[in-house]
């Protein structure tokens, strides 16, 4: 009987010790949720915008691309609310409320001991970071901008709506639309795939997994970074081939180049234009970084090159925003992102 009592006492002591310091594991949980849910939010907003704008291209419903304003799309607001809820639940202490009750995970413990939002292309930086609720506001701002700019500014807003079916019932109209839809679908698929790949590295880093717990940033810190590079290259090749095939060409050898010129640019896009002036931060994937603003879009291949570059930028910066700033852990928001 004494032995059973001792066992019960021992178990009770362990439970008491765990209960007396519930926050020891919570910052890690909070950080991992920030990474995961931020990536899901980016994908969700991109999907909602794509669905609306694709309906314009294929059915002219709504009548214009401008009608797909993310501020007016209920599912965008739902995705933002879900992100904020997940952050409150993981980072807001026992009451699951940020800034209430005093038991939130400390900002210093989750990499967010910074005065303001990290910002994105000169925006969102005015959001003060005082508690985990402000982190939600920051990530909603950055992720929403990244998704909207990728879907709108890079893809659909560049399309030549004079050729949208049924505006144009000419012999090439449906082919043009297939090309445009393929460009958007392949581009967004690549954005989703690359953010998932980077998510794996960032999650391992904030969890302190062996090989990732150093001062080297993602994805370079990954002990298997060669596999990461190969996965991103494979996603790029699939994207290029899908666009080439739908737009009158192919990429049979998967070298990232269309085998023939394909459709003339004005069949599917407004021409000419300069690729957005953003820069991909240097990493093992792009050792010298990439300067997207140097790409002049004059044909299908240069448009694909622009898409490659800008989506690399969006994926890298949108995922990096979730982990805040923690130089000792190799986490520092790239200056190129803002």
Task: Describe the sheet with the most strands.
Answer: 2 strands, antiparallel
Alpha-beta classification? mainly alpha
- Tell me what portion of residues adopts beta-strand conformation: under 5%
The helix/strand series, from N terminus to C terminus, equals HHHHHHEEEEH
Residue-averaged pLDDT: 88
Catalogue the unreliable spans. 6-25
Using only CA atoms, what is the Rg?
23 Å
Our count of helices gives 7
Termini Cα gap: 67 Å
Number of strands: 4
Strands across the major sheet, in which order? Answer: 1-4
What overall form do the CA principal axes indicate?
Answer: globular
The percent range for helix content is 40-55%
Helices and strands in order:
Elements: H1 2-20, H2 26-59, H3 74-91, H4 132-155, H5 173-206, H6 225-246, E1 273-274, E2 279-280, E3 290-291, E4 296-297, H7 300-320
Antiparallel strand pairs: 1-4, 2-3
Helix pairs in contact: 2-3, 2-4, 2-5, 3-4, 4-7, 5-6, 5-7, 6-7
């Amino acid at each position: 009987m004494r032995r059973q009592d001792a066992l019960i006492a021992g178990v009770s002591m362990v439970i008491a010790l765990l209960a007396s310091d519930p926050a020891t594991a919570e910052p890690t949980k909070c950080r991992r949720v920030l990474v995961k849910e931020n990536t899901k939010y980016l994908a969700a907003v991109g999907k909602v915008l794509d669905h609306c704008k694709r309906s314009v291209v294929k059915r002219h419903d709504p009548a214009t691309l401008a009608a797909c304003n993310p501020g007016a799309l209920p599912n965008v607001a739902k995705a933002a609310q879900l992100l904020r809820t997940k952050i409150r639940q993981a980072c807001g202490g026992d009451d699951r409320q940020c800034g209430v009750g005093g038991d939130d995970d400390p900002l210093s413990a989750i990499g967010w001991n910074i005065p303001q939002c990290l910002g994105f292309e000169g925006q969102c930086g005015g959001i003060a970071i005082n508690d985990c609720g402000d982190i939600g506001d920051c990530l909603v701002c950055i992720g929403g901008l990244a998704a909207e700019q990728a879907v709108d500014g890079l893809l659909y807003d560049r399309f030549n709506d004079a050729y949208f079916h049924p505006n144009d019932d000419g012999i090439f109209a449906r082919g043009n639309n297939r090309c445009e839809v393929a460009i958007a679908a392949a581009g967004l698929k690549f954005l989703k795939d690359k953010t998932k790949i980077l998510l794996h590295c960032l999650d391992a880093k904030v969890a302190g997994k062996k090989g990732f717990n150093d001062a080297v940033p993602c994805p370079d810190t990954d002990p298997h970074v060669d596999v990461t590079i190969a996965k991103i290259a494979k996603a790029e090749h699939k994207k290029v081939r899908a666009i080439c095939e739908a737009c009158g060409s192919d990429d049979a050898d998967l070298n990232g180049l269309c085998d023939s010129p394909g459709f003339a640019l004005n069949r599917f896009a407004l021409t000419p234009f300069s690729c957005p002036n953003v820069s991909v931060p240097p990493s093992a994937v792009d050792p010298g970084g990439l300067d997207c603003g140097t790409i002049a879009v004059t044909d299908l291949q240069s448009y694909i090159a622009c898409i490659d570059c800008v989506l690399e930028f969006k994926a890298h910066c949108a995922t990096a925003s979730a982990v805040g700033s923690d130089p000792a852990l190799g986490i520092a928001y790239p200056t190129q992102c803002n």
